[in-house]
Automatic annotation (TrEMBL):
Biological process, per Gene Ontology: mannosyl-inositol phosphorylceramide biosynthetic process
GO CC annotation: membrane
Entry protein name: Uncharacterized protein
Organism, scientific name: Cudoniella acicularis
Gene Ontology MF terms: mannosyltransferase activity
UniProt KW keywords: Membrane, Transmembrane, Transmembrane helix
InterPro entries membership: Glycosyltransferase_domain
Claim: Transmembrane is one of the keywords in the record: yes
Major location category of this protein: membrane
The organism's place on the tree of life at top rank: Eukaryota
Subcellular location: Membrane
Amino acid sequence: MRPRVYITLTILIVLLVLGFIASRIAGFVHLFFEHAGIAITQEEAAIAHNSTTPDPRPQVIPKIIHQVYHNWHDPSNETLPSDWDELRQSCINLNPDWEYKVCGFKVVDLSSVRLESWYLFKLH
């Protein structure tokens, strides 16, 4: 009688696991077929986004890109390496209305940076 219970439980567990796996696979495959949503292209989404009125809320976060560089081989030398110039320039070109600041590791000091209280709390 005992072997029959073990076989029944094993078959039940295997069927439950296979059913769960099949439902997960069916849900995943469903992502790649037609759905009830509106069919829209990336271009149409961009046009719709650009045609809306600007956000009336005030901008709270300033548009500043801070780049901090520390030369681990020669800490007294704070000049950016030449291979960083292309990356730096691409950041400037892609964000023309943003302010761009570069500073060395010595300049960065938590006492010289205005931090919000929630950020200071996370630092401790």
